[in-house]
């Protein structure tokens, strides 16, 4: 059945599927993992860095991009599609600022991106964008936000979420470990993001990239050293927790 | 009727055909002697050749019978091969005995007589310390293990696909296989395709004890998580004796991943 109705984007199958949109969601799973966490005073984005070829300049392979001073996003999926979406979003942010004299709210720019993606699921001759995005930031009211969009053009607000390869494993980890204590302060939220990523990232700290936004502050990308520090601290805490557990059982 | 990429509806080709088309086809079907000669040449080129390692001469099938065999393990697909080479071939010294080479129209080389070693379709190894672990002739007391991968979208189930934890392992065995498998059996209506199916069918017909371990994964290229999904197989009776050092194998696997990673920048 699928083979007859999956070639054109504008054709529904008899049981109501838009197969091209569903296949686009498979493309998202080919991208490396991205995790987003909304704390009380901080939002954290962690990504699994893809290893680059020897002769490739690392800086051109960026998964976390700022859309404006107070909003940033990370994506998983087709790199080229992400580039197009990001540049459209950045233009929209500036256009909004000039027209309305106010920076965009996180929800506004998420809705813009989602609407753009939805248009491509209803147009003749185009295919959907093969990316999912996690958009984080602070609004003027000081409330932290985390939104997720997917190729179908839907968007939802989340407390914590993961996209890309092994997203399900990370999401299950977050469901178990996202507690009020875990996001009590900024460093705890950062550690939670790192622990979530380490569930699926095989080679440890050197393949992780982290970015945070604090209230009224611009995007901060962690350096490799800072990430290594955080990963080591997380490792130590894990060892101590395991020692305590084994003492209890013994 | 079918919908094309751009949404327009086109008429699907009709299998019934029309009278005019039949006449034209008949004329084309009459073969000239040149066509026959080309066909013969192609058939010769496409023959599968078994080559001995040292001599690079053709390995006669009867020579293979020199190696009696108790266990035959075959891995199909890059993830299964990576698992086999890191976890099983890592322990003990495996000696290459020969390889099978073949050529067809999709190969990039035109020269069929001098295929390079990397173009071998299948390489045969045997364990130096225990040469009975290899062979290609069917023996009644031989046990065959087949490892392969398949994309999870081929897996048919009545459960919701979002509840599936990929990658996962399924087993399919012949009637003569008495051991309990290391994972659940493949349920209907799923079927096995291509070479693994051929090997399993052969074993079933010749009453050889065989088991196929099929890993359903959502990443078809070489992937650490997929290869590690084969780990339960190491606890099976036949393979347990072959596995020595698991942490070392994991390290070797990681190295294999980094050296083989295709630098594709399409997905980030």
UniProtKB/TrEMBL annotation, chain A:
Cellular location(s): Cytoplasm; Nucleus
Keyword list, A-Z: Cytoplasm, Nucleus, Proteasome
A GO BP annotation: meiotic cell cycle
InterPro entries: Ntn_hydrolases_N (IPR029055), Proteasome_alpha (IPR050115), Proteasome_alpha-type (IPR023332), Proteasome_asu_N (IPR000426), Proteasome_sua/b (IPR001353)
GO cellular component annotations of the record: cytosol; nucleus; proteasome core complex, alpha-subunit complex; spermatoproteasome complex
SMART domains per UniProt: Proteasome_A_N
Pfam families the UniProt entry points to: Proteasome (PF00227), Proteasome_A_N (PF10584)
Position of the signal peptide: none
Domain Proteasome alpha-type subunits: 5-27
Domain of life: Eukaryota
SUPFAM superfamilies, per database record: N-terminal nucleophile aminohydrolases (Ntn hydrolases)
PANTHER family per the UniProt record, alphabetical: PROTEASOME SUBUNIT ALPHA/BETA
Quaternary structure (record): The 26S proteasome consists of a 20S proteasome core and two 19S regulatory subunits.
Protein name in the entry: Proteasome subunit alpha type
Organism: Physeter macrocephalus (Sperm whale)
Source organism phylogeny: Eukaryota, Metazoa, Chordata, Craniata, Vertebrata
Gene for this chain: PSMA8
From TrEMBL, chain B:
Purpose of the protein: Chaperone protein which promotes assembly of the 20S proteasome as part of a heterodimer with PSMG2. The PSMG1-PSMG2 heterodimer binds to the PSMA5 and PSMA7 proteasome subunits, promotes assembly of the proteasome alpha subunits into the heteroheptameric alpha ring and prevents alpha ring dimerization.
Recorded superkingdom: Eukaryota
Protein's name in the database: Proteasome assembly chaperone 1
Sequence similarity: Belongs to the PSMG1 family.
Record has Chaperone as a keyword: yes
Pfam entry (one): PAC1
Keyword hit for Phosphoprotein: no
Record region (Disordered): 1-39
Entry keyword set: Chaperone, Proteasome
Biased composition (Basic and acidic residues): 27-39
Oligomer and partners: Forms a heterodimer with PSMG2. The PSMG1-PSMG2 heterodimer interacts directly with the PSMA5 and PSMA7 proteasome alpha subunits.
GO CC list: endoplasmic reticulum; proteasome complex
Coiled coil: none
Any GO BP annotation: proteasome core complex assembly
GO molecular function: proteasome binding
Originating species: Physeter macrocephalus
């Amino acid at each position: 059945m699928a083979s007859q109705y999956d070639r054109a984007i504008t054709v529904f199958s008899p049981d109501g599927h838009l197969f091209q949109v569903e296949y686009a969601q498979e493309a998202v799973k080919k991208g490396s993992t991205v995790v987003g966490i909304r704390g009380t005073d901080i939002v954290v984005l962690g990504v699994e860095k893809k290893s680059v070829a020897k002769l490739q300049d690392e800086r051109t392979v960026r998964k976390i991009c700022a859309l404006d001073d107070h909003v940033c996003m990370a994506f998983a999926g087709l790199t080229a599609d992400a580039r197009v979406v990001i540049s459209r979003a950045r233009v929209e942010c500036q256009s909004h600022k000039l027209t309305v004299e106010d920076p965009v709210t996180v929800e506004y720019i998420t809705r813009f991106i989602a609407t753009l993606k939805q248009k491509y699921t209803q147009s003749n001759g185009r295919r959907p964008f093969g990316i999912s995005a996690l958009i984080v930031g602070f609004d003027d009211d000081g409330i932290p936000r985390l939104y997720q969009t997917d190729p179908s053009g839907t968007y939802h607000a989340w407390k914590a979420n993961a996209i890309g390869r092994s997203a399900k494993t990370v999401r299950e980890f977050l469901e178990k470990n996202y507690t009020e204590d875990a996001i009590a302060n900024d460093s705890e939220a950062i550690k939670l993001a790192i622990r979530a990523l380490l569930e699926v990232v095989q080679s440890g700290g050197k393949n992780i990239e982290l970015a945070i936004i604090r209230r009224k502050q611009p995007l901060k990308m962690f350096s490799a050293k800072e990430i290594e520090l955080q990963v080591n601290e997380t490792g130590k805490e894990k060892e101590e927790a395991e020692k305590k557990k084994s003492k209890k059982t013994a | 009727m079918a919908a094309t990429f751009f949404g327009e509806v086109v008429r699907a080709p009709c299998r019934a055909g029309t009278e005019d088309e039949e006449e034209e086809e008949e004329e084309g079907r009459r073969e000239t002697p040149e066509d026959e000669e080309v066909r013969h040449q192609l058939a010769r080129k496409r023959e599968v050749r078994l080559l001995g390692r040292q001599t690079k001469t053709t390995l006669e099938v009867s020579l293979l019978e020199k190696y009696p065999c108790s266990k035959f393990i075959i891995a199909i697909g890059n993830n299964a091969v990576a698992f086999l080479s890191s976890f099983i071939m890592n322990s003990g010294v495996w000696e290459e005995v020969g390889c099978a080479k073949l050529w067809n129209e999709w190969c990039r080389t035109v020269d069929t007589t001098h295929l390079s070693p990397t173009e071998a379709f299948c390489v045969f190894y045997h364990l130096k310390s225990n040469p009975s672990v290899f062979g290609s002739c069917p023996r009644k007391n031989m046990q065959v293990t087949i490892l392969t991968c398949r994309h999870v979208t081929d897996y048919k189930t009545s459960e919701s696909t979002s509840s599936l934890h990929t990658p996962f392992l399924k087993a399919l065995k012949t009637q003569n296989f008495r051991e309990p498998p290391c994972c659940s059996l493949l349920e209907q209506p799923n079927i096995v395709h291509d070479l693994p199916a051929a090997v399993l069918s052969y074993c079933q017909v010749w009453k050889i004890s065989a088991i196929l371990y099929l890993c359903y994964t959502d990443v078809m290229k070489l992937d650490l998580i997929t290869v590690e999904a084969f780990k339960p197989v190491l606890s099976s009776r036949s393979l347990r004796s072959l596995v020595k050092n698991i942490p070392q194998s994991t390290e070797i696997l990681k190295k294999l991943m980094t050296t083989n990673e295709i630098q594709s920048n399409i997905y980030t």
